[in-house]
Design a protein that fits this description.
Shape: rod-shaped
CATH class of the largest domain: Alpha Beta
Distance between the termini: 26 Å
CATH topology of the largest domain: Beta-Lactamase
Largest sheet: 5 strands, antiparallel
CATH architecture of the largest domain: 2-Layer Sandwich
Order of helices and strands: HEEEEEHHHEHEEHEEHHEE
Length: about 450
């Protein structure tokens, strides 16, 4: 998942909501469990409180030691955290009875702590005990009429409540952590599964651009299918436009060829006429210009075709065999080092024309040796596009820096002793530029000219 990707956005948003929901759910569950534990603890305290009330209400002749039986030994253990206290509230008859565990201390009144009574008149809340520990206390006013008015309070150590809640919170945290991990994995799977059709479209488009396919094929989800249909329609429209452009270029070539031939033939029939000579001169220029611009139009149309790639090594090998046959009487040694994985993003005839011109030029000027190297170069920081570097060296006389600047100009020949029209390097430069590449001329390690052709890789 890369930055600013759709997959990362979906994953982060789903993860954030899952974490928020789990956090809120954990707080709610912990709060509900605390209330449940407190209610259970209060019920236990109320049992002891009702036992004390029963002892208070017992007839005097049946009364023995107070209380008769409360059923909890912790009330006998000094400062155990479990206490009961009965306070008589009748005016002038203040009397306090307490459990042995309170020793010489006393319990605070919840009414003084601001705790409101419940529907049944009892109060429940937290107080600070004799040893400064937190206690959960339940108290109730008991009016026995002539036998007295009492406030009965029972308190227990709140550490039991905290212990139960801590254990629950730990189990809840472990459970939710595992659940969060499972949800993250599930979310990641859902994102990858949901975006798989987009990945298929990306791979299909890359295959079309690399020449391994022509259209987007396969079944796509309802949300993606319109995109695939429109993309296929765009590819078809592109091919139709290119084909139409080629047709127009061909028609224009034929339309200009006939009148131009008539003009040249008529001028040739009058060799003594100065005007005819001028017509022949300008006719040759027109023919060259028309051929040049038609060729550029043809190349531009061809370059716009999506998905055309060519293996470079077979083209180089085939051209080398041809050149060795042409120059066999000179005994030239042509060394070839070509990467079999190098592929040119363009059509084979254009690649043959570019490499053919460079190799032919090198063979014409070489003394005895020509070296050809083809490598595939990765993208750079300036451009992530991979390139193919085709380097042609010879051991001929080479060119000076000034001559190298002039060599690529159209129709310019630096040495009339060699056959040719002077268009070879210019054609290579034009073709390379149309494909987004370039041609560099320099000094070869063999001593002659180095021509390095850089083209986009397929």
């Amino acid at each position: 998942m890369r930055a600013n990707s759709l997959a990362l956005r979906l994953f982060v948003s789903a993860t954030a909501w899952a974490v928020i929901i789990l956090f809120i759910t954990g707080i709610v569950l912990s709060s509900l469990y605390r209330h449940a534990v407190e209610r259970s603890f209060d019920r236990r305290l109320n049992v002891y409180l009702r036992t004390l009330v029963a002892d208070l209400a017992a007839p005097e002749d049946a009364a023995g030691e107070f209380p008769q039986s409360i059923g909890e030994p912790l009330f006998e253990l000094p400062l155990s955290g479990w206490y009961w206290q009965v306070t008589r509230l009748d005016p002038g008859k203040h009397e306090v009875r307490a459990s042995r565990s309170l020793w010489d201390r006393g319990l605070p009144h919840l009414e003084n702590e601001g705790v409101a009574p419940g529907p049944d008149g009892s109060r429940e809340g937290y107080v600070t005990g004799p040893e400064h520990q937190t206690l959960r206390q339940v108290e109730r006013d008991i009016d026995l009429g002539n036998e007295g008015h009492y406030l009965v309070a029972v308190a227990g150590d709140a550490a039991e409540i905290d212990g139960e809640i801590d254990s629950f919170d730990q189990a809840l945290a472990i459970t939710f952590t595992i659940l969060a991990a499972v949800l993250l994995l599930t979310t990641m799977f859902q994102v990858r599964f949901g975006l798989a059709p987009l990945k298929r479209i990306t791979n299909s488009l890359a295959a079309i651009r690399a020449g391994r396919g022509e259209r987007l094929t396969g079944e796509f989800p309802e949300e993606i299918a319109p995109l695939a249909r429109e993309t296929n329609a765009l590819i078809d429209a592109n091919k139709e436009i290119v084909e139409r452009a080629r047709t127009h270029v061909g028609n224009l070539a034929h339309a200009l060829k006939t009148p131009l031939s008539v003009m040249v033939n008529e001028a040739s029939a009058r060799p003594s006429d100065p005007l005819a000579g001028k017509v022949l001169e300008q006719g040759a220029i027109i023919r060259d210009q028309v051929a040049r611009h038609l060729e550029r139009a043809r190349l531009a149309a061809r370059h716009s075709v999506v998905g055309t790639v060519t293996d470079v090594a077979p083209v180089v090998t085939s051209l080398v065999r041809t050149m060795e046959k042409i120059h066999h009487d000179r005994g030239l040694a042509v060394d070839v080092r070509a990467d079999d994985t190098a592929r040119f993003r363009g059509e084979r005839p254009d690649l043959e024309e570019m490499i053919g011109n460079l190799v032919d030029n090198a063979c014409k000027w070489a003394g005895s040796r020509v070296s050809i190297e083809v490598v595939r170069a990765p993208g750079t920081a300036e451009s992530s596009t991979e390139t193919v570097h085709i380097t042609v060296d010879d051991d001929g006389p080479g060119l000076t820096a000034a001559e190298r600047e002039q060599a690529a100009k159209r129709g310019l020949r630096l040495d009339e002793s060699k056959p040719g029209s002077g268009l070879g390097l210019s054609i290579v430069t034009d073709l390379a530029t149309l494909y987004g590449g370039n041609l560099k001329l320099g000094a070869a390690p063999l001593g002659g000219l180095r021509a390095e052709l850089v083209l986009p890789a397929g």
